[in-house]
Specification:
CATH superfamily of the largest domain: Tetracycline Repressor, domain 2
Radius of gyration: 19 Å
Structural class: mainly alpha
Number of strands: 0
CATH topology of the largest domain: Tetracycline Repressor, domain 2
Distance between the termini: 52 Å
CATH architecture of the largest domain: Orthogonal Bundle
CATH class of the largest domain: Mainly Alpha
Number of domains: 2
Length: about 200
């Protein structure tokens, strides 16, 4: 890994480079992204890039970490409401609304990077897998809170239930992206909701 910034100014410069790289990757794909374009967008010289990152792969690793944080951070307030059935429905509705605004474009940023880089670099794949782990952990925590509130049965297998919910979400996003049809995500999430409903106490 490149040098970790020791100053606030350095941390801002590194974050600016990572943000610029994430934008380039989103537009051109990870393999099509060039360090020269990242440098131009971040107003950073080649020497700055190599001060903070060993090489392009090291920069992509930082982009993967930033992508995890961005995807999960954008959902944090919704995750906090997952302890109720109504909160679960709000989360699902918000996810579908995002795809409707985007007209089915974009898919899941974490999954997109896995598709591009997962078979090429195990370190990046592991970082992205940790993003899915964090995503599932938030879902599981919501289900655990529903058990504590008496909304889900105490014998519900929360690991399996949260894993299947995330799988439904990812499948729905993939089909939505491929077909440019947000109804694909709605159908997938309605299926997840029906499954979760089997474990409700009322």
């Amino acid at each position: 890994m490149g040098a970790e910034p020791a100053t606030e100014r350095g941390r801002r410069a590194r974050s600016r480079i990572v943000a610029a790289a994430a934008d380039v990757v989103a537009e051109r794909g990870a393999l099509g992204a060039s360090l020269d374009e990242v440098g131009v967008r971040a107003s950073a010289s080649r020497s700055q890039l190599y001060h903070y990152f060993d090489d392009k792969n090291d920069l992509l690793l930082a982009v993967a970490e930033a992508t995890n944080d961005a995807v999960l951070g954008a959902q944090q307030s919704l995750f906090e409401g997952l302890g109720t059935w109504a909160g679960l429905q709000r989360w699902f509705d918000a996810l579908v609304e995002i795809q409707e605004r985007r007209h089915g474009r974009g898919g899941c940023p974490i999954a997109n990077l896995v598709a591009e880089l997962g078979e090429r670099d195990d370190d990046i794949r592991n970082v992205l897998a940790s993003g899915f782990d964090r995503w599932q952990a938030n879902i599981r925590a919501g289900f655990a809170a529903m058990v504590a509130r008496g909304e889900l049965r105490a014998d519900a297998d929360l690991d399996w239930l949260s894993g299947s919910t995330l799988a439904s979400l990812q499948g729905g996003l993939t089909l939505t992206q491929a077909r440019r049809d947000p109804r694909q995500l709605r159908q997938a999430l309605d299926g997840a909701l029906a499954l979760i409903n089997h474990h409700r106490t009322t």
